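Notebook p. 47: complex prediction with uracil.
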Amino acid sequence: MASLSKREKGLIELRRRVKSCRQCQLGETRTNVVFGSGSPESRLMFVGEAPGYHEDQQGIPFVGQAGKLLEKMLARIGLSREEVYIANVLKCRPPDNRDPQTAEIELCRVFLEEQISIIEPLVVCSLGNFATKLLTGLPDGISRVHGNPQEMPGHSGMKLFPVYHPAAALYTPSNLRSLEADFDKLPALLGLSQTQALVETGNVKSDASVEINGGKPEPEQLGLF
Ligand code: URA
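Predicted complex, structure tokens below:
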């Protein structure tokens, strides 16, 4: 087996810690920790809000309706989910899909910050209000800031690119149009032409095996990242 990259090793170690986290009440009600999935070497990382029912069942982010739309948006720019990295602000599902609470976000944010530091993507695309407000450190809502790239606080050379959460675009055509228009800006932000994006953004390894596994709870060795 090929030796693991620095990023892979970093994520395996971090994942181990997150899986045993019991710092907040969500640790009592979750079925699975939803750590993140995709290529640790990707230059493009997405950050959503929190796992929902299907994510909690499968231990994989964005596998429900919103995830299908995210995949469609990625396909629009020639990418697949295996070629990017996808994570959430919260790693455990809030019961009944309620909003994340401030205390939960504060306890969980260190894990997301470590993920970003390990992966060091060129662009972090925040999906919706919770990820955007957390990563900008500002109260400005997504409808004000979406589609405008900015410097990622605390990471020189990294860009933060807020877009609408796919769930907010599922049934609202104007949000869907904004999401599409914002996604269309991503290849240029990554410094790639649309045709290059597929080849150059996706990198080295992916955890496609997790998805191929048919959505069963990930075996320890397959859902490494
Ligand atoms: N919505 C999110 O924000 N994250 C998921 O993983 C799924 C839906």
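Notes: The chain has a mean pLDDT of 89. The chain has one domain: 34-197.
Next step: compare against the earlier run before touching the bench.
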